[in-house]
């Protein structure tokens, strides 16, 4: 019944139906679940209970004669002071000139609008003479269009609820409603639209938040289960004694977070299905060591391991550090596009005969002539830099190898659960002891001369510096223009004593690699760059990171850039040059100077920017929830994830009658990925 056209609702003709279609409302079900995006509450509260920048309703007496000012064409500003208890509150109303004649001193008025706690000011959108009603209803506010008025939508919604509201089926099992004290679905749906009290609205929101998150997590758990079933792998029976002895021989102790992540990976390796795990951790947290021990484990199980990284310089650095780490225990080789002729043929042969234990390289690893003898473990570093096909090609080169993805972008737990719900996630959220923190300073533009002097001093002491260019959103061309201009300015300041290099996005990969190599080898002391500075490249000498117009970057990006320095023995510095106009920019600068913890920063970034912008607007890969909010509802997200895992792992979804409605909803949702539940 609910899947009938919205035209079945009284008052909806063909024309209105077409306008509702523009709002993605096609059926009666679409209409009933088209929830308000906010509510106007006309409940009068004491000033002490009001929240800054939120909607509030105040009642009081007009204490000053209203004044009216005009600006622009037909635009006006009405201002007066009202006495609310012992406080004088300024009320501002725009484009309500007609009210001036009706307001007199000592009139009792009720006003609603945005509350500014610091100025004791209310920017009002509603004004009513007289006292507020104690039972004033909570008014729903919907997203509407120029053709669909709010009043029209509310009228249509009431009709739909009266006629069809009782036909809304329950989808959650009774036991879950009891356990979490959630209202029935049809009741909660009514309360989402026309709540009789704030308590009923709160419970309705709680119910739909849990329902949305549970359905999403069930899809994720089903995907994970399907992946495991479709990707039977090989249980890797590694030699625990050899690994324990190797870890004990390391010149440093593993952190608790490294030990925990390593244990999770090793446990996966023993399973008969293919591992699909993300290892995330801050720059310098020791992900590579954990990956190296895991690869060693695969070798002790009689398999080969491969590490694929995005650039040649990074591959060379990894090969060098792993050869040093293993100290002759294993045959570690490097294969990149630069390896040619006899040397390449020799490596290809050693891969095929199985004499190479660990192969490190770029996308050269996935070329057709590279054939492994017994590839059992694959590590893909900075996995977002490779396309899906490239990752799949490497996976398919082995006999169903385990796959470990690594990223240096710390992802907040709520996002990790949501965006990577079909993967297992290990987090190294602790830094090795003794590592010097990068000192971070926020300075204004007038201090640029001092900053340039500081760079000169650092270079004279043997250090190097990155200078990151102002970011101009959506304009690669202007970014490069900026970089070139800054490069020319700095050359005038520093050369010939100091060599300045330039890197930007229009250069070829070979040119970028060459410039990074020159910088890594200290043939260039200052590198001017747009944000294309390679992730993960170690330049131990680099001790200064200067970021122009730093307020234009997100916290995560600023933190990634800061991670380019502080990789050697030197004390390192990050200088943020910025003059932010808004509160958000100032807040970012403050947070950056207060913490170097990437996970804390990523949580703050998520709060400031929201989940869509965290991964970038183009492909956040995140679901659009109608009611749930990943940032604020993280406890419900955790609960839903736990419940979904239990429902799928126990087989209840297929077996128990009380899960039939959920099963039906999921069957409909999963058709797109070819999942069919019996």
TrEMBL record:
GO terms assigned for molecular function: 3'-5' DNA helicase activity; ATP binding; ATP hydrolysis activity; DNA binding
Species lineage: Bacteria, Bacillati, Bacillota, Bacilli, Bacillales
Domain of life (superkingdom): Bacteria
Pfam families in the cross-refs: DEAD (PF00270), Helicase_C (PF00271), RecG_dom3_C (PF19833), RecG_wedge (PF17191)
Keyword Hydrolase included in the entry's annotation: yes
Species for this entry: Salimicrobium halophilum
Residue intervals of the Helicase C-terminal domain: 447-607
CDD domains referenced in this protein's UniProt entry, alphabetically: DEXHc_RecG, RecG_wedge_OBF, SF2_C_RecG
Record's protein name: ATP-dependent DNA helicase RecG
């Amino acid at each position: 019944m609910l899947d009938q056209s919205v035209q079945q609702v009284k008052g909806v003709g063909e024309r209105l139906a077409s306008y509702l279609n523009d709002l993605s409302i096609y059926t009666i079900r679409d209409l009933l679940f088209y929830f308000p995006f906010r509510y106007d509450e006309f409940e009068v509260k004491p000033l002490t209970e009001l929240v800054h920048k939120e909607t509030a309703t105040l009642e009081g007496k007009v204490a000053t004669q209203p004044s009216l000012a005009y600006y622009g064409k037909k635009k006006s500003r009405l201002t007066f002071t009202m006495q609310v208890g012992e406080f004088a509150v300024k009320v501002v109303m725009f484009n309500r000139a007609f009210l001036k004649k009706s307001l007199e001193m000592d009139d009792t008025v009720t006003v609603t609008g945005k509350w500014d706690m610091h100025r004791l000011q209310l920017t009002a959108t509603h004004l009513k003479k007289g006292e507020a009603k104690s039972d004033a209803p909570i008014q729903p506010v919907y997203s509407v269009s120029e053709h669909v008025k709010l009043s029209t939508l509310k009228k249509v919604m009431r009709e739909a609820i009266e006629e069809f509201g009782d036909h809304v089926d329950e989808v959650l099992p009774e036991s879950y409603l009891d356990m979490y004290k959630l209202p029935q679905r049809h009741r909660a749906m009514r309360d989402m639209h026309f709540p009789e009290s704030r308590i009923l609205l709160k419970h309705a929101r709680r119910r739909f938040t849990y329902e949305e998150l549970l359905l999403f997590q069930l899809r994720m758990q089903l995907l994970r289960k399907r992946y495991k079933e479709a990707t039977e792998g090989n249980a890797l029976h590694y030699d625990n004694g050899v690994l324990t002895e190797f870890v004990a021989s390391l010149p440093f102790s593993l952190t608790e977070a490294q030990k925990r992540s390593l244990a999770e990976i090793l446990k996966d390796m023993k399973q008969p299905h293919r591992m699909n795990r993300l290892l995330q951790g801050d720059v310098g947290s020791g992900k590579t060591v954990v990956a190296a021990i895991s690869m060693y484990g695969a070798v002790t199980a009689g398999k080969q391991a491969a590490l694929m990284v995005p650039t040649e310089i990074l591959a060379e650095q990894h090969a060098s550090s792993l050869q040093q780490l293993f100290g002759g225990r294993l045959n570690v080789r490097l294969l990149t596009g630069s390896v040619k002729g006899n040397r390449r043929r020799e490596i290809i042969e050693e891969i095929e005969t199985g004499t190479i234990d660990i192969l490190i390289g770029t996308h050269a690893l996935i070329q057709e002539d590279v054939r492994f003898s017994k590839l059992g473990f694959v590590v893909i570093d900075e996995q977002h830099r490779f396309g899906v096909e490239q990752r799949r090609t490497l996976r398919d080169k082995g006999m169903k190898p385990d796959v470990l993805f690594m990223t240096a972008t710390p992802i907040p737990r709520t996002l990790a659960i949501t965006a990577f719900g079909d993967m297992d996630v290990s987090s190294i959220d602790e830094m090795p002891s003794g590592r010097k923190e990068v000192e971070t300073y926020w300075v204004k533009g007038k201090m640029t001369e001092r900053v340039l002097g500081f760079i000169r001093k650092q270079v004279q002491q043997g250090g190097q510096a990155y200078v990151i260019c102002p970011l101009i959103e959506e304009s690669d061309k202007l970014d490069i223009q900026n970089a070139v201009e800054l490069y020319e300015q700095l050359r005038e300041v520093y050369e010939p004593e100091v060599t300045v290099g330039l890197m930007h996005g229009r250069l070829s990969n070979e040119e970028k690699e060459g410039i990074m190599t020159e910088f890594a080898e200290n043939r260039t002391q200052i590198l001017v760059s747009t944000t294309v500075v390679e992730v993960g490249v170690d330049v131990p000498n680099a001790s200064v990171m200067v970021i122009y117009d730093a307020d234009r970057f997100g916290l995560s990006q600023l933190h990634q850039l800061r991670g380019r320095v502080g990789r050697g023995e030197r004390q390192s510095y990050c200088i943020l040059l910025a003059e932010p106009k808004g509160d958000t920019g100032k807040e970012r600068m403050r947070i950056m100077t207060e913490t170097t913890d990437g996970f804390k920063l990523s949580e703050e970034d998520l709060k400031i920017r929201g989940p869509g912008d965290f991964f970038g607007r183009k492909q956040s890969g995140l679901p659009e929830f109608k009611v749930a909010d990943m940032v604020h509802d993280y406890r419900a997200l955790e609960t839903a994830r736990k419940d979904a895992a239990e429902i799928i792992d126990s087989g209840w979804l297929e077996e128990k009658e009380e899960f039939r409605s959920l099963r039906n909803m999921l069957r409909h949702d999963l058709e797109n990925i070819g999942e069919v539940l019996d």
